[in-house]
Amino acid sequence: MALRKCWRFAGVVPRLLWKSSVPAGAYNPGGRSYVSCFVNTQQGCKSTELQLRRFSSEPASTDVSYEQLKQVLADRKAIVIDVREPWELREYGFIPDSINVPLGQVNTALQLSPEDFREKYGGDMPQQTDNIVFTCLAGVRSKTALDTATSLGFKDAQHYSGGWQDWVKHEQQK
């Protein structure tokens, strides 16, 4: 009985908290929220604890701006992986010091040995603790590569959401 009331209560509280704590027209930038409810029945005590938690499957910030990318390239603090197809790099150009790993190969490539990775892609294999920045033409494929790397346990992976199109725009303004 108490459990049934708890679940019924848990379904209402997020809506009440949401309506009372967030201004109209706002959105939840942290992702999803959930409520967990515990009934303590030890030593005859019947109390209900309510906890509201927020969670997200991604780190706080995964987007890298043009300026940030320029800085990590200058400081050599990240491995930049371009996930476009090789013909796209030949036709449009590429970001200096980036490694080309086509999107369809990212999952397999990030699981290779460092020697095999270097032989196949011509660059250093990123470790799971390395800062990796994925890039593509416009930021769509790099986001997919970021999700893949995160699922493989890479902790400091990001993506350049502007992609090659943004890079060229900024480089031409110099």
Protein architecture, described:
It is a single chain. The chain has 174 residues and is an alpha/beta fold. The chain is built from 7 helices and 6 strands; from the N terminus they run αββαβαβααβαβα. The protein is globular and about 40 Å long.
Strand content: 15-25%
SS content category = alpha/beta
Question: Rough shape?
Answer: globular
Secondary structure tally: strands:
6
Helical stretch count? Answer: 7
Low-confidence stretches: 1-56
Q: Termini, distance in Å? A: 69 Å
Strand order of the largest sheet: 4-3-5-6
Q: How helical, in percent, are the residues?
A: 40-55%
What is the CA-based Rg, rounded? 23 Å
Biggest sheet overview: 4 strands, parallel
SSE order, as H and E? HEEHEHEHHEHEH
Average pLDDT metric: 76
Provide the fold topology.
Layout: H1 2-21, E1 32-40, E2 47-55, H2 66-75, E3 79-82, H3 86-92, E4 99-100, H4 106-109, H5 114-121, E5 131-135, H6 140-151, E6 156-159, H7 163-172
Kindly summarize this structure in a few lines.
By secondary structure, the chain is α/β, with parallel strands linked by helices.
Which descriptors apply to this entry?
disordered N terminus; alpha/beta; two-stranded antiparallel sheet; 6 strands; 4-stranded parallel beta sheet; single chain; 174 residues; 41% helix
